[in-house]
């Protein structure tokens, strides 16, 4: 499978392969974007007319997280809103927990039109545009308000539009949470404690360099394979949002959790552009409105679920929890500052400036 290598690789050669594969798809499916009553060339069952009124559609939405996470609840809200607003003309089938596609194949599936909506971590799109790794810039975003201001503003929208030339369309950003580290070797309260540990990440250059800067090794592993890798000991630890740490039951295979909050896990909601462009205006408007409602739901849930997950983890008592003092947290900030400086200086400068301004 070529897709996942392509997505995590930053050189032009690989990106050209992505474009070529779209060209091949266009040749394979010459009727693309015509609308009408035919089965859609992008794989969606498209049974209504594209001329007027809400079209009859079946939308497959695939993601890798559990249902009781900000992403899971937002996805279910999207389904509810779409089906309600369309009077049942549009059916949304939600496939959580990587049931339909996982990290290895979801991007290729959406480009091929085999699934209409996926919701990967933004960093998983960095093979197309490296600025999607902005959320992994260490200590870049202060809080939820900072993220929302950036995502709703020109910077966030400009970033989403970078997907257009790869046959995809970014519909929204959804929150997951700030990332924290678990491992089964040592209670981490200083960056030097991570030295020599092998940590799973969702991939990308920046987060890899963040761990390099702290003397740890990092490796990309698909989300739905992390529990087993921790259990087998092929990795010592991992980083994720508190809700993912809790819902994936990492406490069963990890002894230590440190609230580092060193980077952000944020999602991009991605659809197939050709499929989207083939929908009539009324249908697009309905989906856009439902997406706004689902985004609100994710935002409403993220801190609430985080608090609940922390309580659950504490009451289970399986992991030693380290809460860092401001001074200790500053040591993580200082250790990773060179990574921030390097990448904030090389990513899309307009977007970086807008992201920094959004926090002011
Ligand atoms: C990860 O791969 O670490 C997560 O972002 C998975 C997810 O989508 O919640």
As a percent range, the share of helical residues equals 40-55%
List the bound ligands.
(2S)-2-hydroxybutanedioic acid
The residue ranges in which pLDDT falls below 50 over 5 or more consecutive positions are: 1-45
Query: What order do the helices and strands follow?
Result: HHEHEHEHHEEHEHEHEHHEHH
Radius of gyration: 20 Å
- Counted up, domains total 1
CATH homology-level superfamily = Bacterial extracellular solute-binding protein, family 7
Estimated structural class = alpha/beta
CATH topology: D-Maltodextrin-Binding Protein, domain 2
**CATH architectural category:** 3-Layer(aba) Sandwich
Q: Alpha-carbon distance between the termini? A: 43 Å
Query: Mean pLDDT across all residues, rounded?
Result: 89
Largest sheet: 9 strands, mixed
Dominant shape: globular
Portion of residues in beta strands equals 15-25%
Keywords:
single chain; 360 residues; alpha/beta; D-Maltodextrin-Binding Protein, domain 2; nine-stranded mixed β-sheet; globular; disordered N terminus; binds (2S)-2-hydroxybutanedioic acid
